[in-house]
Amino acid sequence: MKLKNYLLAGTALVALSFMAACSEDETIQNENNTENPGGNDGGDETNEDVIIWPGDTIANLTNHYTVPEGKTLIIKAGAKVIVSTAGVGANHAPIEFTVKGNLYCEGTAEKPVLFSVPEDERTEENALVGLWGGIVATSTCGEMLIDHTIIEYTGGQVIEGSPAASAGIYTAGDDAYPQITTNNINGRYVITNSVLRNGWSDGIYLMGGNAIIANNIFAANGYDGAEAVNVKAGCVVDVAGNVMFSPNTNGLKLSSSGQSEDRGMAKIQAYNNTIINAGWRRDGEKGGCVYVEKNAFANVFNNLMVNCKFRAMTPSYDLPNNPDEGYCSESVIDYNYYASGTQKSNVVFEDESGVAYSWEGYAYAHKNYYEGVVDANSIITKTASDCATNDPKFVNFPINDVALTDYIYQDAWDFHVQAGSPVLAGAYDGTDTKMAPYFGTEGLQVNGQTYTSPKVEARFGAYGTK
Question: Where is the stretch described as Disordered (predicted)?
Fold first, then answer.
């Protein structure tokens, strides 16, 4: 991906006011200083149900925005959605981008769509503050495409007056906004080639839907909890080819919480992801890379875990196929690769695990590890002397130098591996049909186009050699 910093820079252009589809005030700026053709809302209307925000424009949101039920919003390549951090109303409720209809973000490698805050507020100090409410796809959102899109600085607190609280999606006073939320068990969602970074809460929180989450970069997800990808009941999901850097708790939290007759078991294929520095900013003995619970049917394989605090965990493993709390006995969590650098964490919870090194966390006698069953065939670095042997040999990532609690992603890093890397051998070969991606053959149709999940690669991690 060519997600260049210059795309985040503002431009001094003429502002044109318009009223959006649901009457929220916005400002749009056109880079050729001409009024946008089409309807009176500043976008191109191909018909009364479809609104297009043109490419290379800036939409300034100063109020909550909603794509109404039955309507479609298409955001073209290079468009920037800049969200005010002042909030809405007397209590300054964080601005929320609600999708009751369909949303298609059609960025490209050269011109991604951007959801962010004003440029002078895009600072390292604000990375985990939570400045706006993120994208919330409700139970009536049928389709959503997030392609080559950057979403950042989300995670505002859900309070009284927040649309998600009024709709019963989140609880005022208890929840913070993820970067993306879904809540339709029949919805179709494709999130690909995108960057979800710098958020107080989860990167993606799936409470329903069929989804492909592939080839994205997640970075700095979660302040004092939260994951890169968090899946609940009512979901069928392929998660593949993603890089997850420094999620506060886990790269993947896979749970069938909320399962009922209407909301089916969570089903997840999670393969060929690279998870780095997970869990070190979270206290307690929870978190560290992958957490599978509450009867989720999860196949987790061929993933590369680097400098994570703990290994894959499966609480309540001794309650097989219990729909409330137990572990789904059909799940396979195996053929993963756990690499460790030699650096010591600058945050050590001595009154808990006392784990200070990644290899030490992998070797820790955790109550939620199940030796010989979970990760029975995985490569696990358990001693300092094994660190060099099991080094993945990235093209450009200093595995022994980046602090375990660092969370700012560096664009210069390259998680492809060098020829001869040990992660290129020993992975699962992809022949078992029950491990096949759910959407690898027939795919998911979104906006008239069929998207397919990446095929299983017989290596560990998101990338092979260049």
Answer: 27-48
